[in-house]
From TrEMBL:
<protein>
    <recommendedName>
        <fullName>Phosphate-binding protein</fullName>
    </recommendedName>
</protein>
<feature type="binding site">
    <location>
        <position position="94"/>
    </location>
    <ligand>
        <name>phosphate</name>
    </ligand>
</feature>
<keyword id="KW-0813">Transport</keyword>
<dbReference type="GO" id="GO:0035435">
    <property type="term" value="P:phosphate ion transmembrane transport"/>
</dbReference>
<dbReference type="InterPro" id="IPR050962">
    <property type="entry name" value="Phosphate-bind_PstS"/>
</dbReference>
<feature type="binding site">
    <location>
        <position position="112"/>
    </location>
    <ligand>
        <name>phosphate</name>
    </ligand>
</feature>
<dbReference type="GO" id="GO:0043190">
    <property type="term" value="C:ATP-binding cassette (ABC) transporter complex"/>
</dbReference>
<dbReference type="Pfam" id="PF12849">
    <property type="entry name" value="PBP_like_2"/>
</dbReference>
<feature type="binding site">
    <location>
        <begin position="200"/>
        <end position="202"/>
    </location>
    <ligand>
        <name>phosphate</name>
    </ligand>
</feature>
<dbReference type="InterPro" id="IPR024370">
    <property type="entry name" value="PBP_domain"/>
</dbReference>
<dbReference type="GO" id="GO:0042301">
    <property type="term" value="F:phosphate ion binding"/>
</dbReference>
<keyword id="KW-0592">Phosphate transport</keyword>
<comment type="similarity">
    <text>Belongs to the PstS family.</text>
</comment>
<keyword id="KW-0732">Signal</keyword>
<dbReference type="InterPro" id="IPR005673">
    <property type="entry name" value="ABC_phos-bd_PstS"/>
</dbReference>
<feature type="binding site">
    <location>
        <begin position="64"/>
        <end position="66"/>
    </location>
    <ligand>
        <name>phosphate</name>
    </ligand>
</feature>
<feature type="domain" description="PBP">
    <location>
        <begin position="55"/>
        <end position="348"/>
    </location>
</feature>
Amino acid sequence: MKLQRKNGLRATALGALAVSGALVLTACGSDDNTGGSGSAGEKKAAASNIKCDDAKGQLMASGSSAQKNAMDLWVKNYMAACTGVEVNYKSSSSGEGIVAFNQGTVGFAGSDSALKPDEVEESKKVCKSGQGINLPMVGGPIAIGYNLPGVDSLVLDAPTVAKIFDTKIKKWNDPAIAKLNPGVKLPETTIQAFHRSEDSGTTQNLGKYLGKAAPNDWKYEAEKKWPAPGGQAAQGSSGVAAQVKQVPGAIGYFELSYAKSQNIPAVSIDTGASAPAEATSENASKAIAAAKIKGTGKDLALDLDYTTKAEGAYPLVLVTYEVVCDTGNKPESLDTVKSFLGYTASDEGQKILTDAGYAPIPTEINAKVRETINGLS
């Protein structure tokens, strides 16, 4: 399946951002849900936009820590409406989530990168009559956070970022950094670069960006395992953010929500446009809006443009997928998977993303996500 209307995507993404609204921490609105069981959860959901339908019991899920803050909000809202259901999302890493999915221990997995061909093949053992597919659910910028007392604003470009994380640039007053920040008093502090210790889709997306935007300075394959020598490792996006927060001279990469929640300043990226692009939800959406669907059939994996020079577009972005079986889902969890993911892909579910530091999935793509969720079996 190919997405043809690139300009339409850009317009619809920006339209979604215009309706950001306040965080929805409790369900509201009205819908007449007529699930057959008549459970207490369904009756409560009757006064909510969240459709519990026949959801019941416990739903286990795990994976990407990039979407943890969004998932925490979704789970809280959903369980407030559907009191007979427990959703347990274990924030670990994309790699661990996909392993758990292919072992059949979770109803869905979160991943910052689409399934690889061998992972799809492996999924067919669990999805008895089908295979694992990728549903884009959360977009957003990967912030490059830093700890440099006295420096409130910092601009880097892709080659400089690549050299920093490859330990080729070792001091904060390096001429390459100074050139991008005229008038800024940069200290001679040693750079302390932090990366993820475990397999991570966030790492892979950073690698994809650097490989496309700085091919002469980043020679590593875009894999989930950190590829470069040197640097220091920390567990999860939260672990990297915590280290950057604590260590003077530190720099690291994590989702914008972690930077916002811990008041960590984020780098603006010089893309060659008239002004550097700040790491914001709106600027990330400007980049995500140019994405095309590269998946086939029901798979909705996206092809992102990491080299965009569009005005204001922040190019270091990721899209987090929910990985599910297209067919052959476990009967005991199918209804709950469809109900919960139906909420996350709903207008209500997507609207809460911006205030949490994420970006809603462009409307045209999200319409296909909802259609696919409705057809899961």
